[in-house]
Amino acid sequence: MDKYLKALVIGAISFTVFYGVTRMVLGFSIFRIGAALDVSARMGAKLACSGYYLSGLNAQQNIDDLASYSPANRLLTINYDNGAKRVTANLKGLAEQSATYREGLGCTLDIGDTTALDSLQNTPLPPIAAAWPKGEQVDSIEPNIQNILDGLLQQDNLNGKQSRAMLVVKNGSIVAESYAEGFDQNSKLLGWSMGKSITAMMLGRLEQMGQVILDQTTGFPQWQNDARKDITLIDLLQMSSGIAFDETYAPGTDATNMLFHAHSASDVALTGTANHDIGSHFNYSSGTTNILSRWLYDHLGGAQQQLDFFKQEFLEPLGMRNTIFEVDPSGVYVGSSYIYASARDWARLGLLMLNNGNLHGQQLLSPEFVKAAQTPIDADNYQKYGYQFWLNSDMQDTRWERLPKDAYMMMGNRKQIVMIIPSENMVIVRLGWTSGSYPTEANFAQLIE
């Protein structure tokens, strides 16, 4: 490579590292340029692969989405090999990484031996002619609410907020849904950390089936010789296990290693040591959720059994035909981050929680689990959190004053949200790609009022 071009690349990355970066967003440290180049290629391969094969994004939209994390990602060259179903990202010859798409599994970075993934089976569900939520027929649109929602989505996008799908459920029916150009009711969109709530719901389903008691200890062999042996599943669900995990998305941190370098994402947090007493301190940690994913994987008996469980206990009964939960290179669900679903499928999950875990007369989740999921935790530093769900209010204050105090949410990076509002018998879904602030309170208040 020409030495001047190389200097330009490194200079561009150095210049942009401190712009548009928040704690929850992947950032590049100017002091770790070499590692930053590698992260850029790995992130580019993974998100472009899933964006292309799952969300139907074109090459330019993928680059634009990646650039929202750092403008330096515009220097990536991304190659789409439709024959091999592989996407490769190259950063001017300085770093390269590939990811492979598998039907029913989505995309996985090509890290280590991934041949075991080739034998996994996860066939899509056939369509069913029925009204939503059982099927995809929607004839319950309320024009007034639809007009408001259309206006909100249009205004969002005029303001550069990149809202891609918005949907409102009232009294069990879809009363409004709106989509940006290029997206529709079947578009699978990344929920990022909303996957944490789904991972919790999988534990709740096992509890309802009598296969687990949530206050039991994990039983991980790695933890049996120190204080971690006393950590329970509830401690993990409430992000209060005491295990140290660096959620900062920068080269070399726990979070970046977990998502873009590790063959087994859950191993990163499993090897973490405790820095707080168990149950005393809230520490938001994607690694904690992936520990729960690892526990589910082990309990269910492996990768195929994990896929079968999610399909049989959630996708099939809920009618979720546009959802893909992605695995890491070892075959374990990346419960913290990688689930792609349509707005209607995200709404189905919210409706299950709204209905206290009951689906058409079948109790998928116990009412006790649903209540615990929306009950403030007892931590010394933060309380507006339940079982991998965020809460609008605790005993001290309220996050969004214009919204009902009993609202609780799945929330993910880029301002993804599924808000469940029991007092209004309502679910609101917003999916998009917002790199800055988003007017959640103002927009949702209009829909509720």
From N to C, what is the helix and strand string? HHHEEEEHEEEHHHHHHEEHEEHEEEEH
DSSP helix fraction: 25-40%
Question: What oligomeric arrangement do these chains adopt?
Answer: single chain
Overall shape: it is globular
How many helices? 13
User: How many domains make up the 3D coordinates?
Assistant: 2
Low-confidence stretches at least 5 residues in length (pLDDT < 50)? 14-29
What top-tier CATH class of the largest domain fits best?
Alpha Beta
Strand order of the main beta sheet, please? 6-5-15-14-13-12
CATH architecture of the largest domain: 3-Layer(aba) Sandwich
* Computed structural class: alpha+beta
Beta content: 15-25%
Largest sheet properties: 6 strands, antiparallel
User: What is the average per-residue confidence, as pLDDT, rounded to a whole number?
Assistant: 93
Secondary structure: number of strands: 15
> What is the CATH topology of the largest domain?
Beta-lactamase
Q: What is the rounded distance between the termini? A: 59 Å
Mind telling me the C-alpha Rg?
21 Å
CATH superfamily of the largest domain, called what? DD-peptidase/beta-lactamase superfamily
Describe the structure.
The protein has helices at 3-16, 33-53, 59-67, 143-158, 194-208, 233-237, 254-260, 265-270, 286-300, 303-318, 343-354, 367-373, 440-448, and strands at 77-81, 86-90, 96-102, 106-109, 163-170, 173-179, 189-190, 323-325, 339-341, 358-359, 362-363, 390-391, 408-412, 416-421, 426-432. With 449 residues, it is α+β, with helices and mostly antiparallel strands. It has two domains: 3-110, no CATH class; 189-448, Beta-lactamase (3-Layer(aba) Sandwich). The protein has a six-stranded antiparallel sheet with strand order 6-5-15-14-13-12, with helices on both faces. A four-stranded antiparallel sheet has the order 1-2-3-4, with helices on one face. The protein has a three-stranded antiparallel sheet with strand order 7-9-8. The longest helix is centred in the first third of the chain and has 21 residues, at 33-53. It is globular. The termini are far apart. Residues 14-29 have low confidence and may be disordered.
